[in-house]
Amino acid sequence: MSAPSADTSRAALESLRSEISKAVVGQDSAVTGLVVALLCRGHVLLEGVPGVAKTLLVRTLAATLDLDTKRVQFTPDLMPSDVTGSLVYDTRTSEFSFQAGPVFTNLLLADEINRTPPKTQASLLEAMEEKQVTVDGTARRLPEPFLVAATQNPVEYEGTYPLPEAQLDRFLLKLNIPLPSRADEVDVLTRHAGGFNPGDLESAGVRRVAGPAELEAARAAVAKTAVSTEITGYIVDICRATRDSPSLTLGASPRGATALLSTARAWAWLTGRDFVIPDDVKALALPTLRHRIRLRPEAEMEGVTADSVINSILAHVPVPR
């Protein structure tokens, strides 16, 4: 059986939006962000108030791509071994055997990641960066593809452990999940009144539209998307401008620049081009950079936000022609 072509893979991934909309209403930008992350082999931080379908979105995405998914509810008493797995003593053989944790999956939903202490949060670092887990000196590879979709609540801070900058920087994208519009919320209630069950995606008509083969073909096509020296210079200028901004104490790192390059490439390919233009960079600048910068306290008090700083930088950095 031959591998899917780039055009076939693009068409399959484009159909994800309509397929996911059978279960999730009005979150097109979040769906696109998750697809971009999969194409770039990155991870996503989903931020939104409770009840905006963050968990349902990840579950539905996994169903449409025929990928395995597991969910971990992060709590103050969660231990690293509860995520990665541990060695278990077998009394029958008098030997230790490895019992894999929920991280051994394709899509890991790390629910309310900021509710668990830093030690447990850090247990995901190796998995996110190296795509492996080391227990008792033995490294074990994770399935491919592998994506961490972590959620956090932006309005509740009591009893939480904010992710440090070093770990935030490991997330490719930070996607803000807004409250739905009135029309979308009416649609949600109409579906529930009609018998929609979020726990039964099959009855909602959600089906597989792509799989690992299409995803791998798409990744190969994204890797061939051309990037001119003018575009790489534009990305560097944007990231360097964040380091010079008077509103920030921390700007985007070189990892942030490479992340913006990757996401712009994926977006260019998804929109049907084999080369990157400045608009691709602008389209992905906010979700790629907003969690990699830190505001000065006085700027926060004046109502400045990370997004407003990035938008101001995009408006002032010269665009290549």
What report would you give on this structure?
The chain is α/β, with parallel strands linked by helices. Helices cover 44% and strands 15% of the residues. The protein contains 15 helices and eleven strands. The strands form four sheets. The chain has a five-stranded parallel β-sheet. Strands 3-4 form a two-stranded antiparallel ribbon. A hairpin with a 4-residue loop joins strand 3 (85-90) and strand 4 (95-100). Helix 1 packs across helix 10 (212-223) and helix 13 (278-289) packs antiparallel against helix 15 (306-316). The chain is globular, with a radius of gyration of 20 Å. The N and C termini lie far apart (43 Å). The model has no long low-confidence stretch (mean pLDDT 91).
List the helices and strands and how they pair.
Blueprint: H1 6-14, H2 16-20, H3 28-39, E1 44-47, H4 54-64, E2 69-73, H5 80-84, E3 85-90, E4 95-100, E5 107-111, H6 118-121, H7 125-130, E6 132-135, E7 138-141, E8 147-152, H8 165-168, E9 173-176, H9 182-193, H10 212-223, H11 229-244, E10 248-250, H12 254-270, H13 278-289, E11 294-295, H14 297-301, H15 306-316
Helix pairs in contact: 1-10, 10-12, 11-12, 12-13, 13-15
